[in-house]
Amino acid sequence: MSTTAQTAIPHHIAIVMDGNGRWATRRFLPRLAGHRQGVESLRRCVRACVARGVGVLTVFAFSSENWNRPADEVSGLMDLLAKALAREVPQLSRDGVRLHFVGEKSGLSDKVRDGLRQAEAATAGNDRLVLNVCFNYGGRWDIAQAAAQLAARGEPITESSLHAAMGMAHVPDPDLLIRTGGEKRISNFLLWQAAYTELYFSDRLWPDFDEAALDEAIADYAARERRFGRTSEQLQAAAPGSLRA
Ligand code: IPE
Ligand code: IPE
Ligand code: MG
Fold this sequence. Notes:
six-stranded parallel β-sheet, 8 helices, magnesium ion binding, Isoprenyl transferase, binds 3-methylbut-3-enyl trihydrogen diphosphate, metal-binding, UPP_synth-like_sf, binds magnesium ion, Undecaprenyl pyrophosphate synthetase, globular, alpha/beta, about 240 residues
């Protein structure tokens, strides 16, 4: 444990929920069965985050590049999202979860778009956990669309104006980014917001990522020293948690 240990629980956790396809293939099941199991794993993870006092959970559910998958997998994922929303929103609301969808809405069908809007409206009064679902999202898309907004308004492009125009402006940057499924890459997730996020890679496939695995990731995070460009000695002199990038 470092001398400047974090507050043990990260305020904002982001997750690349990877490995659903392999989970299914290993069981001789269609890939979509893995995605369905992935929804179960997300439900468990949300409840675990609520129980641990995490304030924000941001999950990568469908990337700008996932359109390149076979058409039946893409349509299956769209369908799964619409059905999961219809089924899960009442319980999410009881648990105090507020939903936000981050990503390019224009690429989605009317049915999916309506589902997202309704879920956001139905949970807008909740304040225990913010759940950001990145869907049809890419970090590059987000930076480019923010720059385009500023250009259209004739506003100067600065770090803070860009930040404010991006899809994640309503929450602080993630403290911990977990990627399951064994790959060690970002795959166009939160490129801007992850500048000083602690990265954690797990070999577990997303459907197998349970509470104990989440606790391991949180414990690993708690033992890290976040320096934000400063020296260890400076951190030791400062009040715990007072330093940011
Ligand atoms: C992540 O699981 C979910 C989505 C990208 C929608 P994958 O479907 O990428 O699973 P693997 O990586 O093929 O195992
Ligand atoms: C990242 O996983 C996107 C999501 C989890 C939604 P991918 O499976 O699409 O990433 P790559 O293709 O292995 O980089
Ligand atoms: Mg994958």
